Amino acid sequence: MTIRWAAPQDMGEVLQLIKELAAFEREPDAVVITQRDLVENGFGSNPLFRIIVAEINQKIIGMALFYNRFSTWKGKTIHLEDLIVTENMRGTGAGFALYSEVINIAHKEGVKRVEWVVLNWNKNAIDFYKKTGAMVLEDWYTVQMDEKAIMNFTKKQHENI
């Protein structure tokens, strides 16, 4: 198995992994990005994210997508957006290898924290993260505003002006 930086030509396989993750997370129709979006946003002059992939026999079997953030309390951090290994290759060590590489990158870059979210029903992932020394914070909620809510919010702001 090889862990390497992803390239633009890998984004078709990466998109398939993202869709597989969405199905696993019980939201199979939630993915709206395209292969082109991944290439444009990850490999342009100002990339918004980085991706490493796990590969066996030149076939991508997993990926980790992450990006830098800044904490007002800690300073430079990394947010691990997604880590997925295709279902038939789980148990090969690919997930641990990707996870380890992200943590090693964080260490080399001197970041103060790596953070991510995990679904509360994904007991295997939670147990794994805890076993590696990660803290699962149960007193924080993830808050999101989707595209429709953003539009409604801005529309209401303009109406109140």
UniProtKB/TrEMBL annotation:
SUPFAM superfamilies reported in the protein's UniProt record: Acyl-CoA N-acyltransferases (Nat) (SSF55729)
Gene3D superfamilies, A to Z: 3.40.630.30
UniProt keyword annotations, A-Z: Acyltransferase, Transferase
Domain of life: Bacteria
UniProt cross-references to CDD domains, sorted A to Z: NAT_SF
MF-aspect GO terms: N-acetyltransferase activity
Keyword match Magnesium: no
Pfam families cross-referenced by the UniProt entry: Acetyltransf_1 (PF00583)
Span of domain N-acetyltransferase: 1-150
InterPro entries hit by this protein: Acyl_CoA_acyltransferase, Diverse_Substrate_AcTransf, GNAT_dom
PANTHER family, alphabetized: DIAMINE N-ACETYLTRANSFERASE, GH14572P-RELATED
Family affiliation: Belongs to the acetyltransferase family.
Protein name (database record): N-acetylglutamate synthase-like GNAT family acetyltransferase
Organism: Myroides indicus
Lineage: Bacteria, Pseudomonadati, Bacteroidota, Flavobacteriia, Flavobacteriales
